[in-house]
Structures are given as C-alpha cells and as structure tokens.
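Tutorial, part two.
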Amino acid sequence: MPMERAEALVLRCTDWSETSRIATLWTRERGKVRALAKGGRRLRSSFENALDLLTHCGIVLLHKPTGGLDLVTEARVLGVFPRLRADLLAYYGGCYVAELLADGTEELDPHPALFDAAIATLRGLGDGWPVGQRLARFEMTWLRELGVQPVLEGCAGCGDEIDLGDLAFSCAAGGLVCPSCRPAVRERRPLTEAAWQALCAAGEDGPVWGEAVRREVRAVLEQYVCYHLGRRPRSLAFLQRPGQGGEGPTS
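Running the prediction step on this input gives:
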C-alpha cells in the first residue's frame, strides 16, 4: 500500500472503536479523504491533538487502493487558530467552513486553492473584521472551485448587460437576471447596486461593508450556497442566533 505525506485540515472525527476514530480531512494534495486513525482515542496517543476539529496538521496516509478506508499512521500539528477558541462567533464560522468542505465536495478531488482559502479564512476569523464578510470570501472560492460561481457581470440567462438600477438575483438562473429573462424564473430577489459591488469584490481585500450591505450579501450568498449544497448547513443556525450574529443573516 502506497504511503504519502499530506497537509490537512481536520473537518470531522467520529469514534470507531474504544481506541480508534475515523477522521474526515481536507488535504491540499488529495482533497477530501476519510481515514482511520488507530489508537486515535487513547489519552496518550501518538497523534496528541493533531486530529482535533479545525486543526491544521501534517499527516502520513497509507492509501488502500481496494476502496477501504485509508489509514493515518502519523499526524502532527502544523498550526492552530487560537481566536476560534476565544470568539464563539468565529468558532461557528470555522465550523461552517468545515461543513462546506465536508459535505459540499467530492472525495479525492483536490482543489489547492480551496485548501489555501480555508486556512486563510480560519486565520482571519475573529480578527475584528465581520465574520460574515470573511465567510463571503471563502464561499466565493468554494463556489468557483465547484464550477458554480454566480454570474455577476451580465445576465445569467441571455448574457445581456445589466442595468445597475434594476438588479435581480436568481439562484436557479445562476446569478443576475435581466428584466426580459425574469418571467421564466420564479425564484429571484432584488439586489441593490451596493450589494452587487460587494459581491463582485467578495474575493478580494477591501473595505469593511456597512451593516445593511453585509446583511444583504449574506442573505444572497447563504441562499445560493444552500441551493447548491442541497440543504441548509447546520452551522448557519448557530451563526444566526441572537447574540451570536444578530437576527437574520450572519453578521
């Protein structure tokens, strides 16, 4: 069985036996993998804390070509994100990133840009920027890597230019829709020019969005992510609790 080293982010762990656990990992080299860590539940395991949720680690994988679970034979911590332990909203944001990677990607389908975006997002959460704006940047990368990035520079239906004074967004259409294409799309929502500009710049560094723009962008992106994931991420409920992100879309 071939052995290989990989850089990984721990997305999920479940107990397998009294001493072992199964880890869902997002690796830079191989994408999502599920692997058995024998002895991973022991108090004095050789893995120590490397397989804790949202830990950036270096691993050694023993790949099983027959289709069974891979084996994690080594794991060491490369980095942790201390702000996630001190800021509950940032922690929930990290759980949301992990959920999109765990449930919104295919196994053994590597996307190095998505791995880098996840690590950068986890490092940035809790640094004083609104959590929702940090997550928007990751969501846009996730959508782009999955091949469903929303069309924002023209009509997703016919390709015509869009009147900035009359914007509408449709998840089913895949982005903006012009007045001529709207009758064919049941699901659509109006979009302000300010929110459109923020969406266009969501993957870049820029100024902090105002609260009204942030709420509108969050509503659009969360609806679009849910549409392509096929369900509502469980972690969004925690991000939107009163006192954790305010009423409504993520702050």
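Residues 211-229 form the longest helix (19 residues). In part three we will examine how such features are distributed along the chain.
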